[in-house]
Amino acid sequence: MHMADALLSPAVGGTFWAATAGTIAWCAKKVQQDLDDRKIPLMGVLGAFIFTAQMINFTIPATGSSGHIGGGLLLAILLGPYAAFLTIASVLVVQALFFADGGLLALGCNIFNLGVFSCFIAYPLLYKPLAGNGTSRTRIVIASIVAAIVGLQLGALGVVGETVLSGIAELPLQAFLWAMLPIHLAIGLVEGLVTAAVVTFVWQARPEILESAATTRPLGSLPIARVLAGLAVAAVLTGGVFSWFASSFPDGLEWSIAQATGKDELDEPAEGIYGLLAGFQEKTAFLPDYAFRTGEQAAAAEQAAEPAWPAVDSGTTVAGLVGGGLTLLVTIGLGLVFRKRRRTA
Amino acid sequence: MAAVDSAFLDLHRLDHLAGRDSVVHRLDPRVKVLITLTFLICVVSFDKYAIAGMLPFAFFLTLVLGLGGIPAGFVLKKLILVAPLALLVGLFNPVYDQQPLMQLGTLTIAGGWLSLLSLLLRFCLTVGAVLALIATTGFNAVCMALEQLGMPRVFAVQLLLLHRYLFVLVEEGRRMDRARRLRSFQGRGLEMRTLGPLLGSLLLRTLDRAQRIHLAMRCRGFDGTIRTCRPSRLTGRDLLVLALCGGALLVLRAVDGPLLLGRLVTGLIA
Are residues A42 and B69, on separate chains, in Cβ contact within 8 Å? Predict the structure, then answer.
């Protein structure tokens, strides 16, 4: 599943944009250092190959539904992590621009979810050690399945985390996780099986392709410290998501805790990350009074458990409705004028 | 498959639209990329219950689409095609957020419905903005603009090559898929078992193609960078448009125009 702009807050979108842009720059440097200019057309054509592969559907056994391959792991096996990351990123850019899949602001999140996890975690830490030097069919199959499942689970976790951190959608973390993770377990299994089938086919038909792919890239040089640092960041983020969720959805987990214990216990740990994010949002907001308004509403939302609802200013409501309606009318009118002009032209 | 097919036809259509000429088309791609980014950041930074405040942005988008001669039906069709995702996640808002926020006579509207409406509006605006950018600029020009704005060159080349070979390979993949489906009866032969070898042979052909392309490019002196002979320089007009549009968007974000307008109108009536 792709993240959409509409579900994102600027702080989350911007953070992931920065992370992704940094990774792209780092990978671009690595690929350029490689000095193998054969790789540049190869990356381009393989990106187009992934698109094509996604269009060819197949029936999934025992379900009768049909699915298609994602291709992140396959690219990592064929190209190595750095070039594969650039290729996945380019595929997602084209999908965002032409197919309106995801969005421009969500691009950072999407590249991170689908690229970083499969290229820099699932491939080097799981596929490589499990597949060994790639001469045993069983090992290739097992390695592909394990790496694809782990990569997709992490990606699904990323989608959930980004959505919940943004706070635009109200879907509680637990329900969202229960919807996303089992589905992605099945998707990961299928993805792993198909990847394994393609890799073993290539290995039987033209073994030299995989051998040359395995030798020309600096695989051993993947700095383990950086990977561990990345995992630590992911762990902190996930922990933050959990604790933040506890305070901001009074009718979800906290409600049940309050019911069970008789008091709001989870308020304290949540202050940290929520306050941090709110402070960040205040800094990035264009006008401080808007951030202030958001703060007020958040405070109002926290008081929601009290019998008295926050005072609703009906004057503002009516003015907002009238003004909004007028703006909408003017917009539609403008669209109709353009349409008429195009017909007569 | 049908959905992908129509999406692919849209790809051709977008390229075709980008080849037209209008006031919007003639702007420098960098200016358009920057204005689109400003637009997106303004829209997503709205409060989660904001609806009226976002409508001026719909006005701005309609103006750009109209000036660029992009048919509204095309944009609406694309929006409907990709809407299910946002709708699916947003549909839970009214369920989980029942705090009343709006009072209309005896009718009380819960916050969830407002935030769902706001989410859908956000979705239309963000997707529409990206479509407007690509339909008035074209993919190649957007890539060049991004490179001039600091994207690594290898990545720009990668995007250009991907776009160029997309059409070639998708045609080939569609031929293979059609051939396979024509030979299948009652869905036999479409299982996952046949997909591996199918994709595998497509992959081998792709790799051979990459080899040929590489040799051809080497023969023409390729050294890892793609050069264009299209000069791009920012004119005063481009900078003026950037300043005006950027300023207008920031003002629209900062001032709740519809609310002021509504206050004025209700004030006049009362």
Answer: no
